[in-house]
Design goal:
The protein has one domain: Response regulator (Rossmann fold), CATH 3.40.50.2300. It has a five-stranded parallel beta sheet, with helices on both faces. The longest helix is centred in the C-terminal third of the chain and has 19 residues. The chain is α/β, with parallel strands linked by helices. The chain contains five helices and five strands; from the N terminus they run E-H-E-H-E-H-E-H-E-H.
Length: 127
């Protein structure tokens, strides 16, 4: 029996949360959405992959990545932003993001990146 992955989406834009929720559910994934980094940090449920916006109200995506590292939460992180810069890309990847995407997102590309991250993470968990 194959386990259905849980994808967590953090974005303060309700439209983006709803769009990603609908798309990812349509391809058979479980989805949890959060309107802030703080809300996600308080969540103690299953997370197989996190998709987060970089520019959030309150704690930003960089700070979220740092908190997750400090807490030892090692699930893959995909960062997205409408304000992509080479510095932001480098910093996110240096902090452990597996991918950095510019908005507007190509949903099929996002799906490929999520599937790749899940595959690599599963490989890291096997003895």
């Amino acid at each position: 029996m194959q386990c259905v992955p849980t994808i967590c989406v953090v974005d303060d834009d309700e439209g983006i949360r709803e769009s990603l929720d609908s798309f990812l559910r349509s391809v058979g994934m479980r989805v949890r959405t959060f309107s802030s980094a703080e809300e996600f940090i308080a969540y103690d449920g299953k997370t197989d992959c996190l998709v987060t916006d970089l520019n959030l109200t309150g704690m930003d995506g960089f700070s979220l990545q740092m908190v997750l590292l400090q807490q030892g939460r090692s699930h893959p992180v995909i960062v997205m932003t409408a304000f992509a810069t080479p510095v932001a890309r480098s910093r996110s990847l240096a902090q452990g993001a597996v991918a950095f995407l510019s908005k507007p997102l190509d949903p099929e590309n996002l799906l490929l990146l999520i599937e790749d991250a899940l595959r690599k993470n599963q490989g890291n968990r096997e003895p």
